[in-house]
Specification:
By secondary structure, the chain is mainly α. The chain has 5 helices and 2 strands; from the N terminus they run ααααββα. Helix 1 (about 10-30) packs antiparallel against helix 3. It is globular, with a radius of gyration of 13 Å. Bound molecules: zinc ion (ZN) (2 copies). One zinc ion binds near residues 64, 77, 94 and 98. One zinc ion (ZN) binds next to strand 2.
């Protein structure tokens, strides 16, 4: 199993960078499109999110309050958390589209 680059955290970091870049592009398309945009999610972004989700661990549901956290991009949530973000002193699980929609740019720790 030498193919795994580094540890899960490094894998996550790589996947996150790819996902963030791809989702940034995607988000611009969402602004012009509608709910269908989610079905047109860039394959690269989808793959990166899957990788990030695998690194993060499965089974976590996104806890984003989409309607208030990012009202412009309400429909982007894919429900599968890949990271946590501190909000008001509590860890909130976020999926990649929600994290991007919220403007998360810093690396999760
Ligand atoms: Zn959301
Ligand atoms: Zn979400």
């Amino acid at each position: 199993m030498e193919e795994q680059p580094g540890n899960p955290a490094e894998q996550f970091a790589m996947a996150w960078q790819i996902a963030a870049a791809a989702l940034d592009q995607w988000r611009k398309q969402v602004a012009a499109a509608t709910a269908e945009a989610r079905d047109n999610l860039e394959p690269a972004a989808r793959a990166a999110m899957e990788a990030a989700r695998a690194a993060f661990g499965s089974g976590r549901a996104c806890q984003c309050l989409c309607a208030t956290a990012h009202p412009q991009d309400k429909g982007v949530c894919d429900g599968g958390a890949i990271m946590t973000r501190r909000v008001d002193g509590a860890d909130v699980y976020l999926c990649a589209p929600c994290a991007v929609a919220q403007g998360v740019s810093e690396m999760p720790r």
